[in-house]
DNA sequence: CTTTGTGCTAACAACAATGTTAATCAAAAC
DNA sequence: GTTTTGATTAACATTGTTGTTAGCACAAAG
Protein backbone atom coordinates (compact mmCIF):
# COMPACT_ATOMS: atom_id res chain seq x y z
CA UNK A 1 0.00 0.00 0.00
CA UNK A 2 1.35 3.39 -1.05
CA UNK A 3 2.62 5.84 1.52
CA UNK A 4 2.19 8.76 -0.85
CA UNK A 5 -0.89 8.98 -2.97
CA UNK A 6 -0.69 10.15 -6.59
CA UNK A 7 -2.49 13.33 -7.52
CA UNK A 8 -5.00 11.31 -9.45
CA UNK A 9 -5.75 9.26 -6.39
CA UNK A 10 -6.13 12.44 -4.39
CA UNK A 11 -8.54 13.79 -6.95
CA UNK A 12 -10.46 10.55 -6.89
CA UNK A 13 -10.85 10.59 -3.14
CA UNK A 14 -11.94 14.20 -3.31
CA UNK A 15 -14.74 13.86 -5.81
CA UNK A 16 -15.78 10.49 -4.48
CA UNK A 17 -16.09 12.04 -1.04
CA UNK A 18 -17.87 15.07 -2.43
CA UNK A 19 -20.45 12.92 -4.12
CA UNK A 20 -20.85 10.78 -1.05
CA UNK A 21 -21.42 13.81 1.17
CA UNK A 22 -23.90 15.35 -1.22
CA UNK A 23 -25.71 12.05 -1.58
CA UNK A 24 -25.93 11.52 2.13
CA UNK A 25 -27.41 14.95 2.61
CA UNK A 26 -29.87 14.55 -0.25
CA UNK A 27 -30.98 11.08 0.80
CA UNK A 28 -31.40 12.05 4.44
CA UNK A 29 -33.37 15.12 3.43
CA UNK A 30 -35.64 13.58 0.83
CA UNK A 31 -35.47 9.81 1.11
CA UNK A 32 -34.81 7.44 -1.74
CA UNK A 33 -37.61 8.43 -4.09
CA UNK A 34 -37.33 12.15 -3.40
CA UNK A 35 -33.60 12.26 -4.03
CA UNK A 36 -32.40 12.70 -7.63
CA UNK A 37 -28.96 11.63 -8.80
CA UNK A 38 -28.66 14.74 -10.97
CA UNK A 39 -29.31 16.95 -7.95
CA UNK A 40 -26.70 15.06 -5.96
CA UNK A 41 -24.13 15.47 -8.73
CA UNK A 42 -24.97 19.14 -9.05
CA UNK A 43 -24.63 19.68 -5.32
CA UNK A 44 -21.28 17.93 -5.42
CA UNK A 45 -20.20 20.13 -8.33
CA UNK A 46 -19.60 17.32 -10.81
CA UNK A 47 -21.34 15.95 -13.86
CA UNK A 48 -23.88 13.30 -13.15
CA UNK A 49 -21.81 10.78 -15.08
CA UNK A 50 -19.35 10.92 -12.21
CA UNK A 51 -22.05 9.69 -9.93
CA UNK A 52 -22.32 6.50 -11.94
CA UNK A 53 -18.57 6.29 -12.44
CA UNK A 54 -17.97 6.06 -8.71
CA UNK A 55 -21.12 4.38 -7.45
CA UNK A 56 -22.62 2.54 -10.43
CA UNK A 57 -26.28 3.01 -9.55
CA UNK A 58 -28.51 5.07 -7.32
CA UNK A 59 -29.61 1.91 -5.52
CA UNK A 60 -26.09 0.78 -4.72
CA UNK A 61 -25.13 4.10 -3.15
CA UNK A 62 -28.42 4.35 -1.35
CA UNK A 63 -28.12 0.91 0.17
CA UNK A 64 -24.61 1.76 1.27
CA UNK A 65 -25.89 4.85 3.04
CA UNK A 66 -28.86 3.02 4.51
CA UNK A 67 -26.54 0.38 5.91
CA UNK A 68 -24.38 3.10 7.39
CA UNK A 69 -27.34 4.87 9.00
CA UNK A 70 -28.88 1.62 10.14
CA UNK A 71 -25.63 1.06 12.01
CA UNK A 72 -26.45 4.19 13.96
CA UNK A 73 -29.84 2.80 14.88
CA UNK A 74 -28.35 1.12 17.93
CA UNK A 75 -26.87 4.36 19.09
CA UNK A 76 -30.17 6.09 18.39
CA UNK A 77 -31.83 3.68 20.80
CA UNK A 78 -29.39 2.38 23.33
CA UNK A 79 -27.30 5.43 24.05
CA UNK A 80 -30.23 6.27 26.31
CA UNK A 81 -29.12 3.52 28.68
CA UNK A 82 -26.44 5.30 30.64
CA UNK A 83 -23.20 4.06 32.07
CA UNK A 84 -23.83 1.21 34.50
CA UNK A 85 -20.97 2.33 36.73
CA UNK A 86 -22.87 5.39 37.83
CA UNK A 87 -25.51 5.52 40.56
CA UNK A 88 -29.00 5.22 39.12
CA UNK A 89 -29.87 8.90 39.20
CA UNK A 90 -26.69 9.98 37.47
CA UNK A 91 -27.03 7.09 35.09
CA UNK A 92 -30.50 8.21 34.05
CA UNK A 93 -29.47 11.86 33.73
CA UNK A 94 -26.44 10.92 31.67
CA UNK A 95 -28.44 8.48 29.54
CA UNK A 96 -31.21 10.92 28.69
CA UNK A 97 -28.82 13.79 27.97
CA UNK A 98 -26.39 11.68 25.97
CA UNK A 99 -29.26 10.33 23.93
CA UNK A 100 -30.75 13.74 23.39
CA UNK A 101 -27.38 15.10 22.27
CA UNK A 102 -26.94 12.25 19.83
CA UNK A 103 -30.29 12.93 18.22
CA UNK A 104 -29.56 16.66 18.18
CA UNK A 105 -26.32 15.92 16.33
CA UNK A 106 -28.22 13.74 13.83
CA UNK A 107 -31.58 15.46 13.57
CA UNK A 108 -32.51 13.96 10.20
CA UNK A 109 -31.61 10.43 11.15
CA UNK A 110 -34.82 9.33 12.88
CA UNK A 111 -37.20 10.35 10.12
CA UNK A 112 -34.93 8.80 7.54
CA UNK A 113 -34.74 5.48 9.35
CA UNK A 114 -38.44 5.39 10.13
CA UNK A 115 -39.29 6.04 6.51
CA UNK A 116 -36.91 3.59 4.95
CA UNK A 117 -37.67 0.88 7.46
CA UNK A 118 -41.35 1.42 6.77
CA UNK A 119 -40.72 1.20 3.03
CA UNK A 120 -38.81 -2.03 3.42
CA UNK A 121 -39.17 -3.63 6.83
CA UNK A 122 -36.87 -6.44 5.73
CA UNK A 123 -34.00 -3.99 6.03
CA UNK A 124 -34.13 -4.77 9.74
CA UNK A 125 -33.48 -8.46 9.17
CA UNK A 126 -29.76 -8.02 8.95
CA UNK A 127 -29.39 -6.28 12.29
CA UNK A 128 -32.28 -7.92 14.09
CA UNK A 129 -30.21 -10.45 16.01
CA UNK A 130 -27.60 -7.92 16.93
CA UNK A 131 -30.31 -5.56 18.13
CA UNK A 132 -32.03 -8.18 20.21
CA UNK A 133 -28.92 -9.39 21.96
CA UNK A 134 -27.76 -5.87 22.66
CA UNK A 135 -31.20 -4.85 23.91
CA UNK A 136 -31.46 -7.90 26.13
CA UNK A 137 -28.17 -7.40 27.91
CA UNK A 138 -28.45 -3.64 28.25
CA UNK A 139 -32.02 -3.78 29.45
CA UNK A 140 -31.32 -6.60 31.88
CA UNK A 141 -28.58 -4.53 33.37
CA UNK A 142 -30.72 -1.42 33.64
CA UNK A 143 -33.60 -3.39 35.06
CA UNK A 144 -31.55 -4.80 37.90
CA UNK A 145 -30.15 -1.37 38.64
CA UNK A 146 -33.68 -0.04 38.92
CA UNK A 147 -34.83 -2.96 41.04
CA UNK A 148 -31.89 -2.59 43.38
CA UNK A 149 -32.59 1.10 43.80
CA UNK A 150 -36.26 0.38 44.34
CA UNK A 151 -35.41 -1.90 47.26
CA UNK A 152 -32.89 0.40 48.89
CA UNK A 153 -34.53 3.78 48.24
CA UNK A 154 -38.04 4.86 47.44
CA UNK A 155 -37.45 4.55 43.67
CA UNK A 156 -40.32 3.03 41.68
CA UNK A 157 -40.23 -0.53 40.41
CA UNK A 158 -40.43 0.45 36.74
CA UNK A 159 -40.13 -1.67 33.61
CA UNK A 160 -36.76 -0.84 32.04
CA UNK A 161 -38.11 -1.43 28.53
CA UNK A 162 -40.83 1.12 29.10
CA UNK A 163 -38.36 3.61 30.52
CA UNK A 164 -36.17 3.18 27.46
CA UNK A 165 -39.14 3.68 25.16
CA UNK A 166 -40.14 6.78 27.12
CA UNK A 167 -36.71 8.33 26.73
CA UNK A 168 -36.48 7.59 23.03
CA UNK A 169 -40.00 8.87 22.38
CA UNK A 170 -39.57 12.09 24.31
CA UNK A 171 -36.16 12.88 22.89
CA UNK A 172 -36.82 12.08 19.26
CA UNK A 173 -40.20 13.73 18.87
CA UNK A 174 -39.14 17.39 18.87
CA UNK A 175 -36.74 16.68 16.02
CA UNK A 176 -39.11 14.64 13.92
CA UNK A 177 -41.87 17.21 14.35
CA UNK A 178 -39.69 20.29 14.56
CA UNK A 179 -41.57 22.77 12.34
CA UNK A 180 -44.87 21.93 13.96
CA UNK A 181 -43.57 22.08 17.49
CA UNK A 182 -41.95 25.39 16.70
CA UNK A 183 -45.21 26.87 15.52
CA UNK A 184 -46.96 25.52 18.57
CA UNK A 185 -44.53 26.87 21.13
CA UNK A 186 -42.62 29.72 19.54
CA UNK A 187 -45.67 31.85 19.10
CA UNK A 188 -47.18 31.25 22.49
CA UNK A 189 -44.28 32.99 24.09
CA UNK A 190 -41.08 34.20 22.45
CA UNK A 191 -38.80 31.27 23.24
CA UNK A 192 -37.62 30.60 19.72
CA UNK A 193 -34.62 28.32 19.55
CA UNK A 194 -34.53 27.63 23.24
CA UNK A 195 -37.17 24.96 22.81
CA UNK A 196 -34.69 22.15 22.41
CA UNK A 197 -32.66 23.00 25.49
CA UNK A 198 -35.90 23.39 27.41
CA UNK A 199 -37.11 20.04 26.18
CA UNK A 200 -33.88 18.31 27.09
CA UNK A 201 -34.14 19.41 30.71
CA UNK A 202 -37.82 18.61 30.82
CA UNK A 203 -37.25 15.06 29.56
CA UNK A 204 -34.64 14.38 32.20
CA UNK A 205 -37.07 15.63 34.81
CA UNK A 206 -39.92 13.55 33.42
CA UNK A 207 -37.96 10.32 33.55
CA UNK A 208 -36.62 11.01 37.04
CA UNK A 209 -40.13 11.72 38.24
CA UNK A 210 -41.36 8.57 36.60
CA UNK A 211 -38.79 6.59 38.54
CA UNK A 212 -39.59 8.68 41.63
CA UNK A 213 -35.90 9.46 42.10
CA UNK A 214 -34.76 12.20 44.50
CA UNK B 1 -79.72 20.16 -7.03
CA UNK B 2 -81.02 16.73 -8.10
CA UNK B 3 -82.68 14.42 -5.65
CA UNK B 4 -81.99 11.39 -7.84
CA UNK B 5 -78.61 11.03 -9.47
CA UNK B 6 -78.30 9.73 -13.00
CA UNK B 7 -76.43 6.48 -13.52
CA UNK B 8 -73.61 8.39 -15.13
CA UNK B 9 -73.34 10.58 -12.09
CA UNK B 10 -73.32 7.49 -9.95
CA UNK B 11 -70.55 5.99 -12.02
CA UNK B 12 -68.64 9.22 -11.82
CA UNK B 13 -68.84 9.36 -8.07
CA UNK B 14 -67.81 5.75 -7.91
CA UNK B 15 -64.63 6.00 -9.92
CA UNK B 16 -63.82 9.39 -8.54
CA UNK B 17 -64.13 8.00 -5.04
CA UNK B 18 -62.16 4.89 -5.99
CA UNK B 19 -59.31 6.96 -7.30
CA UNK B 20 -59.42 9.24 -4.30
CA UNK B 21 -59.29 6.32 -1.89
CA UNK B 22 -56.45 4.66 -3.76
CA UNK B 23 -54.57 7.94 -3.94
CA UNK B 24 -54.99 8.62 -0.27
CA UNK B 25 -53.63 5.22 0.61
CA UNK B 26 -50.72 5.50 -1.81
CA UNK B 27 -49.78 9.01 -0.74
CA UNK B 28 -49.99 8.21 2.97
CA UNK B 29 -47.89 5.11 2.45
CA UNK B 30 -45.22 6.52 0.19
CA UNK B 31 -45.40 10.29 0.27
CA UNK B 32 -45.55 12.52 -2.76
CA UNK B 33 -42.41 11.43 -4.55
CA UNK B 34 -42.81 7.76 -3.76
CA UNK B 35 -46.39 7.60 -5.00
CA UNK B 36 -46.98 7.00 -8.73
CA UNK B 37 -50.14 8.03 -10.52
CA UNK B 38 -50.08 4.84 -12.57
CA UNK B 39 -49.98 2.77 -9.38
CA UNK B 40 -52.88 4.75 -7.97
CA UNK B 41 -54.94 4.21 -11.11
CA UNK B 42 -54.08 0.53 -11.14
CA UNK B 43 -55.07 0.15 -7.49
CA UNK B 44 -58.33 1.92 -8.23
CA UNK B 45 -58.91 -0.42 -11.18
CA UNK B 46 -59.09 2.28 -13.83
CA UNK B 47 -56.85 3.53 -16.61
CA UNK B 48 -54.44 6.22 -15.61
CA UNK B 49 -56.13 8.66 -17.97
CA UNK B 50 -59.05 8.63 -15.56
CA UNK B 51 -56.76 9.96 -12.91
CA UNK B 52 -56.13 13.07 -14.96
CA UNK B 53 -59.73 13.29 -16.09
CA UNK B 54 -60.94 13.67 -12.52
CA UNK B 55 -58.03 15.37 -10.83
CA UNK B 56 -56.03 17.09 -13.57
CA UNK B 57 -52.59 16.63 -12.08
CA UNK B 58 -50.78 14.66 -9.43
CA UNK B 59 -49.97 17.89 -7.59
CA UNK B 60 -53.57 19.06 -7.45
CA UNK B 61 -54.81 15.82 -5.94
CA UNK B 62 -51.88 15.65 -3.59
CA UNK B 63 -52.43 19.15 -2.30
CA UNK B 64 -56.07 18.34 -1.78
CA UNK B 65 -55.13 15.34 0.33
CA UNK B 66 -52.44 17.24 2.19
CA UNK B 67 -54.95 19.94 3.05
CA UNK B 68 -57.34 17.28 4.28
CA UNK B 69 -54.71 15.60 6.43
CA UNK B 70 -53.38 18.90 7.67
CA UNK B 71 -56.89 19.54 8.91
CA UNK B 72 -56.43 16.52 11.13
CA UNK B 73 -53.24 17.97 12.55
CA UNK B 74 -55.21 19.81 15.22
CA UNK B 75 -56.89 16.60 16.27
CA UNK B 76 -53.50 14.87 16.21
CA UNK B 77 -52.26 17.38 18.74
CA UNK B 78 -55.09 18.80 20.77
CA UNK B 79 -57.29 15.78 21.28
CA UNK B 80 -54.79 15.07 24.03
CA UNK B 81 -56.26 17.92 26.03
CA UNK B 82 -59.24 16.24 27.60
CA UNK B 83 -62.68 17.54 28.41
CA UNK B 84 -62.44 20.51 30.77
CA UNK B 85 -65.65 19.49 32.54
CA UNK B 86 -63.97 16.49 34.11
CA UNK B 87 -61.83 16.51 37.25
CA UNK B 88 -58.15 16.74 36.39
CA UNK B 89 -57.33 13.08 36.78
CA UNK B 90 -60.19 11.90 34.61
CA UNK B 91 -59.42 14.67 32.19
CA UNK B 92 -55.84 13.50 31.79
CA UNK B 93 -56.81 9.86 31.46
CA UNK B 94 -59.43 10.69 28.89
CA UNK B 95 -57.08 13.00 27.02
CA UNK B 96 -54.24 10.54 26.76
CA UNK B 97 -56.49 7.65 25.81
CA UNK B 98 -58.53 9.62 23.32
CA UNK B 99 -55.36 10.91 21.73
CA UNK B 100 -53.82 7.46 21.59
CA UNK B 101 -56.95 6.04 20.00
CA UNK B 102 -56.96 8.77 17.39
CA UNK B 103 -53.39 8.01 16.39
CA UNK B 104 -54.12 4.29 16.41
CA UNK B 105 -57.00 4.93 14.02
CA UNK B 106 -54.70 7.00 11.77
CA UNK B 107 -51.36 5.26 12.15
CA UNK B 108 -49.86 6.60 8.91
CA UNK B 109 -50.90 10.18 9.54
CA UNK B 110 -48.02 11.36 11.73
CA UNK B 111 -45.20 10.21 9.46
CA UNK B 112 -47.00 11.64 6.45
CA UNK B 113 -47.48 15.02 8.05
CA UNK B 114 -43.97 15.17 9.45
CA UNK B 115 -42.52 14.35 6.04
CA UNK B 116 -44.60 16.71 3.98
CA UNK B 117 -44.26 19.56 6.45
CA UNK B 118 -40.53 19.02 6.44
CA UNK B 119 -40.51 19.03 2.62
CA UNK B 120 -42.45 22.28 2.52
CA UNK B 121 -42.66 24.03 5.88
CA UNK B 122 -44.73 26.79 4.28
CA UNK B 123 -47.61 24.34 4.21
CA UNK B 124 -48.12 25.29 7.83
CA UNK B 125 -48.62 28.95 7.00
CA UNK B 126 -52.27 28.50 6.16
CA UNK B 127 -53.21 26.92 9.49
CA UNK B 128 -50.64 28.65 11.67
CA UNK B 129 -52.99 31.27 13.09
CA UNK B 130 -55.74 28.78 13.67
CA UNK B 131 -53.27 26.49 15.42
CA UNK B 132 -51.93 29.22 17.63
CA UNK B 133 -55.28 30.51 18.78
CA UNK B 134 -56.56 27.01 19.45
CA UNK B 135 -53.39 26.07 21.30
CA UNK B 136 -53.50 29.22 23.36
CA UNK B 137 -57.03 28.80 24.59
CA UNK B 138 -56.82 25.06 25.16
CA UNK B 139 -53.50 25.28 26.94
CA UNK B 140 -54.58 28.20 29.08
CA UNK B 141 -57.54 26.20 30.18
CA UNK B 142 -55.51 23.11 30.95
CA UNK B 143 -52.90 25.16 32.76
CA UNK B 144 -55.38 26.70 35.13
CA UNK B 145 -56.92 23.30 35.80
CA UNK B 146 -53.47 21.98 36.73
CA UNK B 147 -52.70 25.02 38.86
CA UNK B 148 -55.97 24.77 40.68
CA UNK B 149 -55.39 21.08 41.39
CA UNK B 150 -51.87 21.84 42.51
CA UNK B 151 -53.17 24.25 45.12
CA UNK B 152 -55.93 22.02 46.42
CA UNK B 153 -54.25 18.61 46.20
CA UNK B 154 -50.64 17.53 46.08
CA UNK B 155 -50.59 17.66 42.24
CA UNK B 156 -47.43 19.12 40.70
CA UNK B 157 -47.28 22.60 39.27
CA UNK B 158 -46.46 21.44 35.74
CA UNK B 159 -46.22 23.40 32.49
CA UNK B 160 -49.28 22.48 30.42
CA UNK B 161 -47.34 22.91 27.17
CA UNK B 162 -44.78 20.39 28.31
CA UNK B 163 -47.46 17.97 29.40
CA UNK B 164 -49.09 18.24 26.00
CA UNK B 165 -45.79 17.62 24.26
CA UNK B 166 -45.15 14.64 26.49
CA UNK B 167 -48.47 13.05 25.63
CA UNK B 168 -48.06 13.61 21.91
CA UNK B 169 -44.50 12.32 21.92
CA UNK B 170 -45.25 9.19 23.90
CA UNK B 171 -48.39 8.31 21.99
CA UNK B 172 -47.12 8.94 18.47
CA UNK B 173 -43.73 7.29 18.73
CA UNK B 174 -44.79 3.64 18.73
CA UNK B 175 -46.68 4.19 15.49
CA UNK B 176 -43.98 6.12 13.72
CA UNK B 177 -41.34 3.59 14.72
CA UNK B 178 -43.54 0.53 14.71
CA UNK B 179 -41.33 -2.06 12.96
CA UNK B 180 -38.33 -1.12 15.08
CA UNK B 181 -40.22 -1.09 18.34
CA UNK B 182 -41.69 -4.45 17.46
CA UNK B 183 -38.28 -5.97 16.92
CA UNK B 184 -37.09 -4.47 20.15
CA UNK B 185 -39.91 -5.70 22.33
CA UNK B 186 -41.52 -8.64 20.57
CA UNK B 187 -38.44 -10.75 20.76
CA UNK B 188 -37.55 -9.98 24.35
CA UNK B 189 -40.69 -11.65 25.50
CA UNK B 190 -43.56 -12.94 23.43
CA UNK B 191 -45.93 -10.00 23.67
CA UNK B 192 -46.47 -9.50 19.97
CA UNK B 193 -49.40 -7.25 19.17
CA UNK B 194 -50.12 -6.39 22.76
CA UNK B 195 -47.41 -3.73 22.64
CA UNK B 196 -49.79 -0.96 21.69
CA UNK B 197 -52.30 -1.67 24.43
CA UNK B 198 -49.43 -1.94 26.89
CA UNK B 199 -48.04 1.35 25.72
CA UNK B 200 -51.37 3.11 25.98
CA UNK B 201 -51.72 2.19 29.64
CA UNK B 202 -48.11 3.01 30.33
CA UNK B 203 -48.45 6.47 28.83
CA UNK B 204 -51.47 7.27 30.96
CA UNK B 205 -49.50 6.16 33.99
CA UNK B 206 -46.46 8.18 33.01
CA UNK B 207 -48.39 11.41 32.66
CA UNK B 208 -50.31 10.88 35.87
CA UNK B 209 -47.05 10.25 37.70
CA UNK B 210 -45.56 13.32 36.13
CA UNK B 211 -48.41 15.39 37.53
CA UNK B 212 -48.18 13.43 40.78
CA UNK B 213 -51.89 12.69 40.65
CA UNK B 214 -53.52 10.05 42.89
C1' DC C 1 8.84 10.22 -25.89
C1' DT C 2 5.61 6.78 -25.98
C1' DT C 3 2.34 4.10 -23.66
C1' DT C 4 -0.78 3.07 -20.20
C1' DG C 5 -4.14 3.92 -16.92
C1' DT C 6 -7.61 6.78 -14.98
C1' DG C 7 -10.39 10.78 -13.83
C1' DC C 8 -13.48 13.22 -16.37
C1' DT C 9 -16.80 15.19 -20.00
C1' DA C 10 -20.39 15.49 -23.34
C1' DA C 11 -23.47 13.33 -25.82
C1' DC C 12 -26.57 9.86 -26.22
C1' DA C 13 -29.82 5.86 -25.06
C1' DA C 14 -33.54 3.79 -22.46
C1' DC C 15 -37.07 4.00 -19.61
C1' DA C 16 -40.48 5.57 -16.46
C1' DA C 17 -43.86 8.94 -15.16
C1' DT C 18 -46.83 12.69 -16.10
C1' DG C 19 -50.02 14.63 -18.91
C1' DT C 20 -52.93 15.07 -23.48
C1' DT C 21 -56.04 14.05 -27.22
C1' DA C 22 -59.00 12.03 -30.54
C1' DA C 23 -62.23 8.64 -30.79
C1' DT C 24 -65.81 5.53 -28.64
C1' DC C 25 -69.74 4.30 -26.06
C1' DA C 26 -73.87 4.77 -23.47
C1' DA C 27 -77.12 7.13 -21.11
C1' DA C 28 -80.01 11.42 -20.91
C1' DA C 29 -82.38 15.20 -23.09
C1' DC C 30 -85.08 16.74 -26.60
C1' DG D 1 -84.90 8.58 -33.01
C1' DT D 2 -81.72 12.11 -33.04
C1' DT D 3 -78.67 14.89 -30.45
C1' DT D 4 -76.00 15.92 -26.73
C1' DT D 5 -73.40 15.18 -22.82
C1' DG D 6 -70.03 13.09 -20.19
C1' DA D 7 -67.40 8.90 -18.79
C1' DT D 8 -64.05 5.99 -20.66
C1' DT D 9 -60.25 4.16 -23.49
C1' DA D 10 -56.09 3.65 -26.20
C1' DA D 11 -52.67 5.78 -28.20
C1' DC D 12 -49.56 9.36 -28.29
C1' DA D 13 -46.46 13.34 -26.66
C1' DT D 14 -43.32 15.18 -23.35
C1' DT D 15 -40.45 15.49 -19.94
C1' DG D 16 -37.48 13.92 -16.18
C1' DT D 17 -34.36 10.46 -14.47
C1' DT D 18 -31.32 6.89 -14.67
C1' DG D 19 -27.64 4.76 -16.79
C1' DT D 20 -24.01 4.19 -20.78
C1' DT D 21 -20.28 5.07 -23.91
C1' DA D 22 -16.81 6.97 -26.82
C1' DG D 23 -13.36 9.95 -26.46
C1' DC D 24 -10.34 13.56 -24.19
C1' DA D 25 -6.76 15.19 -20.91
C1' DC D 26 -3.15 14.31 -18.25
C1' DA D 27 -0.28 12.30 -14.93
C1' DA D 28 2.56 8.09 -14.12
C1' DA D 29 5.35 4.29 -15.79
C1' DG D 30 8.25 2.28 -19.13
Structure commentary:
2 copies of one chain form a homodimer. Chain A folds into 2 domains: 56 residues, Homeodomain-like (Arc Repressor Mutant, subunit A), CATH 1.10.10.60; 149 residues, Orthogonal Bundle (Tetracycline Repressor, domain 2). The longest helix of chain A is centred in the first third of the chain and has 28 residues. The first copy, chain A, is 77% helix and 0% strand. Chain A contains 10 helices and no strands. Chain A is mainly α and 214 residues long. The mean pLDDT of chain A is 92. The interface between A and B is large, with 52 and 52 residues. Chain A binds a DNA duplex (30 and 30 nucleotides) through α1 and α3.
Series of secondary-structure elements of chain A, N-terminal to C-terminal:
HHHHHHHHHH
Q: Quaternary arrangement of the chains shown?
A: homodimer
Counting DSSP H or I runs of 4 or more residues, the number of helices of chain A is: 10
The general outline of chain A is: elongated
The overall pLDDT of chain A, averaged over residues, is 92
Amino acid sequence: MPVYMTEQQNAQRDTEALILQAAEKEFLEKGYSGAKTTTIAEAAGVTHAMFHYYFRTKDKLFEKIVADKLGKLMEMMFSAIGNSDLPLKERIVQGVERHFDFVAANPLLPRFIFNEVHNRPERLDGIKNNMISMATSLLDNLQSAIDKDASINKCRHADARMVLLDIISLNIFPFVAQPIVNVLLDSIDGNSGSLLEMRKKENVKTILEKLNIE
